[in-house]
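Why should sequence recovery work at all? Because a backbone constrains its sequence more than one might expect. Tight turns favour small or flexible residues, buried strands favour hydrophobic ones, and helices have their own preferences. The token representation captures these environments compactly. In the example below, the structure is given first.
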């Protein structure tokens, strides 16, 4: 396989704004996803995103599943309970992707570690 592209979507609770973050998904276990809120993510993209308001993780999609099974969302460098995301469920071609509902507080740093 090869590295993939994807996106993650958060909904702002005060502003009702949608935050779409592009992802770079390396084809390796135990790697962090690259995240870019202002353009296409790549190998040199930051591996965390900081919430500017209270948000809810709503959707995550990936073009094709890499070697890793999925990713665990981390808040401020700690694994978030109940936020393990399986790539097989989050394929962009899957119109029935499960709705995600993970709260993130303003100022939290979000990252995703593949497993």
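From this structural description, the recovered sequence reads:
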């Amino acid at each position: 396989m090869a590295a993939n592209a994807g996106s993650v979507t958060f909904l702002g609770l005060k502003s009702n704004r949608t935050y779409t973050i592009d992802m770079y998904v390396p084809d390796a276990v135990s790697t962090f996803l690259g995240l870019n809120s202002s353009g296409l993510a790549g190998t040199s993209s930051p591996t965390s995103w900081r919430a500017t308001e209270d948000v809810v993780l709503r959707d995550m999609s990936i073009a094709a599943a890499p070697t890793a099974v999925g990713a665990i969302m981390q808040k401020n460098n700690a694994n978030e309970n109940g936020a393990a995301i399986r790539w097989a469920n989050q394929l962009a071609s899957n119109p029935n992707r499960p709705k995600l509902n993970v709260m993130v507080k303003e100022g939290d740093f979000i990252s995703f570690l593949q497993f």
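A few observations help interpret the result. The chain has no helices and nine strands.
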